[in-house]
Design a protein that fits this description.
There is one protein chain. This protein has 149 residues and is mainly beta. 13% of the residues lie in helices and 38% in strands. It is built from 2 helices and 11 strands. The strands form 2 sheets. It has a 6-stranded antiparallel beta sheet, covered by helices on one side. A 5-stranded antiparallel beta sheet has the order 5-4-8-7-6.
Length: 149
């Protein structure tokens, strides 16, 4: 069961605009109302592997594809995410049993984590840079922590 505090924070991201997306290895980071380096405003959503990115007709890419060391292939993968820029997040849900995170946008775009190891310590996290709070999700729990000042 998700706490009221966590649900309120999740709801506060809805309709926020994606400003930047990047890969850190094969982790995916989505920045809403901020860019990398902003520490006082906006939200960052960090998805650990395993995740996938799809539209209404196909899976576009995923964390395994992002493991590539081929520079051209990596550029292509990064290019797929440019379509997210300036789009609002329409809905964020947390799967009740797995705690997988699903992010929905216009045009049938969905980015979703999925459990590959039930003992993972972190599947995803969301940073509220305004409040200094982080929501952390893994297959066993979803909880918040306060960032160090």
């Amino acid at each position: 069961m998700i706490s009221e505090e966590i649900q309120e924070m999740i709801n506060s991201i809805v309709n926020r605009t994606v400003q930047f997306v990047r890969l850190a290895g094969n982790s995916l980071i989505i920045y809403c109302d901020c860019e990398p380096g902003d520490l006082k405003q906006g939200y960052s959503i960090w998805l650990e592997p395993t995740w996938h990115f799809r539209c209404s007709v196909e899976v576009i890419t995923g964390s395994r594809a992002a493991q590539t060391e081929d520079e051209k292939e990596l550029e292509n993968i990064i290019g797929y995410f440019k379509q997210l820029y300036s789009k609002p997040i329409k809905r964020i849900t947390i799967e009740p049993i797995t705690n997988d995170l699903q992010i929905e946008m216009d045009d049938g775009i969905i980015i979703r984590t999925f459990v590959s190891d039930p003992s993972d310590e972190e599947s995803w996290h969301i940073r509220d840079l305004n409040k200094g709070i982080i929501i952390i999700g893994n297959p066993r729990t979803v909880h918040t922590i306060k960032e160090d000042s």
